[in-house]
Every structure is written in structure tokens, then in C-alpha cells.
């Protein structure tokens, strides 16, 4: 027996396709939109439509942009000789929020994962090598995750850039601030030990 009209079910099914959204959340969203003012629903619908039409990929760093080149690549205050390599626009946004990086980015749009059929050719490594080959990049900071795929991608990039006069570094990883050692996983502890420094 159906509890909702078919239009509600269609909307709930669409919400369920979104990552991290289950049946109950989808139902809550649909119920909210049903009772929301028409102007709010229209604004949401318009924003979704504009997202696909107006958001593109920066031709330099492959991050999201509403112009041919993104705001970070266009910013003369950024150090274009310092390139941080990340997996996704979300990773770039996380680094930006920290305020700790003043260079530019290169978004791989994925990680090497042979199990999923993703090799170096399927992500933006070729374009990174071309940027370095152009001669303006002084340092490449690899900021991929410490997962198996992230480490494999970092190793591949390091090897791919060996023949160039560029400094290749990897962001440090290890014990978070305020973290207790007894709760830290073994891989994180190993990385923290390997990245130890003088005090």
C-alpha cells in the first residue's frame, strides 16, 4: 500500500540517489519541500539548473569554476610556483579553509585504483606533468589521502616528476592535535613516527 502520491515517491527516489541520503532523509526533504513556500522551492530548482549550466572545470587546475580559469588561478597574490596536488575539489576546499596554503592547486579528479579500473591515464597526472614541464613550477606538494590508492597515486606522481628540476613534497600525516595515542590506528601512528621532527 502506497502512503504518498506518486509525485512524492518520484522525488524521494531522486533524493535517495544522492550520496549519504537514505530513505528517511529523502522523505524528510520531500515533506519539507511540499510545505515550503513556492519561492523557496523555485529558488532551489533554479539553483540546481544553474549548477549544471554555469559550473565548469578550470582549464589550469581542473577545480570547479564559473569561468575558464578559477579565482585561485587568477589571483596574482597566489604563488603559482607552488602547486598542491589534491584528489578532488572538496579536498582543495578543506585546505583553503585551513588558510595554511598560499600556492595554487592541481585537482586530479580521482586516484589510481587498479581494482576499480582507474589508471594514471584516467586522472589528471598527464596535465600535472605538462605544468611542471612548462618550467614555472618550483614545488609540487602531494596532498592525497593516506589510503592505499592515495599512497599509490603519490608514488606514481613522485616517479613521474623525477626527471624534472622540481621539489616534490608530501604533506605530513599523523596524530591529530588533542588525539590520544591509544585511540590512534596503526597506519596513522606509523606515518607520525616516520614524519617525526626535531623539537
UniProtKB/TrEMBL annotation:
Pfam families: RecR_C, RecR_HhH, RecR_ZnF, Toprim_4. InterPro entries: DNA_Rcmb_RecR, Rcmb_RecR, Rcmb_RecR_Znf, TOPRIM_dom, TOPRIM_RecR. Residues 81-176 form the Toprim domain. Signal peptide: none annotated. Gene3D superfamilies: 3.30.60.80, 3.40.1360.10, 6.10.250.240, RecR Domain 1. GO terms for biological process: DNA recombination; DNA repair. SUPFAM superfamilies: Recombination protein RecR. A zinc finger (C4-type) spans 58-73. Keywords: DNA damage, DNA recombination, DNA repair, Metal-binding, Zinc, Zinc-finger. SMART domains: TOPRIM (SM00493). GO terms for molecular function: DNA binding; zinc ion binding. Belongs to the RecR family. May play a role in DNA repair. It seems to be involved in an RecBC-independent recombinational process of DNA repair. It may act with RecF and RecO. PANTHER family: RECOMBINATION PROTEIN RECR. This is Recombination protein RecR. It comes from Desulfosalsimonas propionicica.
Amino acid at each position: 500500500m502506497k502512503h504518498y502520491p506518486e509525485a512524492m515517491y518520484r522525488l524521494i527516489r531522486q533524493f535517495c540517489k544522492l550520496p549519504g541520503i537514505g530513505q528517511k532523509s529523502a522523505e524528510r526533504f520531500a515533506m519539507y519541500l511540499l510545505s515550503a513556500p513556492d519561492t523557496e522551492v523555485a529558488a532551489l530548482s533554479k539553483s540546481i539548473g544553474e549548477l549544471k549550466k554555469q559550473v565548469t572545470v578550470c582549464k589550469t587546475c581542473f577545480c570547479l569554476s564559473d569561468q575558464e580559469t578559477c579565482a585561485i588561478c587568477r589571483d596574482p597574490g597566489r604563488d603559482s610556483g607552488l602547486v598542491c596536488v589534491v584528489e578532488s575539489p572538496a579536498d582543495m576546499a578543506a585546505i583553503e579553509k585551513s588558510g595554511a596554503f598560499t600556492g595554487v592547486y592541481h585537482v586530479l579528479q580521482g586516484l589510481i585504483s587498479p581494482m576499480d579500473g582507474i589508471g594514471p591515464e584516467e586522472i589528471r597526472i598527464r596535465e600535472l606533468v605538462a605544468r611542471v614541464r612548462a618550467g614555472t613550477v618550483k614545488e609540487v606538494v602531494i596532498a592525497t589521502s593516506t589510503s592505499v590508492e592515495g599512497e599509490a597515486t603519490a608514488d606514481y606522481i613522485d616517479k613521474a616528476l623525477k626527471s624534472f628540476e622540481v621539489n616534490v613534497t608530501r604533506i605530513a600525516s599523523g596524530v591529530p592535535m588533542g588525539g590520544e595515542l591509544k585511540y590512534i590506528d596503526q597506519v596513522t601512528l606509523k606515518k607520525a613516527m616516520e614524519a617525526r621532527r626535531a623539537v
